[in-house]
């Protein structure tokens, strides 16, 4: 069973989610999304499967958000900006067999962790 976390080691929510995944006995696939960002299609799928609006998956307090004038941008422009500037992607996204979640706070990962025996 594969569990994937789109991780930023500098983020406390991301570190917490990873810690909980590992403490539950799983060895997740860790994607440092700043180094290896998701494609536009993958990002769009993550957002959709998590039940979020595109803007909800964006870090609006990052300087790039203001610099790029994204306050009134449409979803397509937001997705393009997140792919070009992965620091704008909110984190961590976690993918498990039970679903996709933006784990803010990190403890939300517990809602989608399957039983270890599954």
UniProtKB/TrEMBL annotation:
Reactions this protein catalyses: [glutaredoxin]-dithiol + arsenate + glutathione + H(+) = glutathionyl-S-S-[glutaredoxin] + arsenite + H2O
CDD domains (UniProt xref): ArsC_ArsC
PROSITE patterns (alphabetical): ARSC
Pfam families in UniProt: ArsC (PF03960)
EC number: 1.20.4.1
GO molecular function list: arsenate reductase (glutaredoxin) activity
Keyword annotations: Arsenical resistance, Oxidoreductase
InterPro entries: Arsenate_reductase, Arsenate_reductase-like, Thioredoxin-like_sf
Gene3D superfamilies: Glutaredoxin (3.40.30.10)
Family: Belongs to the ArsC family.
NCBIfam families, per database record: arsC
Protein name: Arsenate reductase
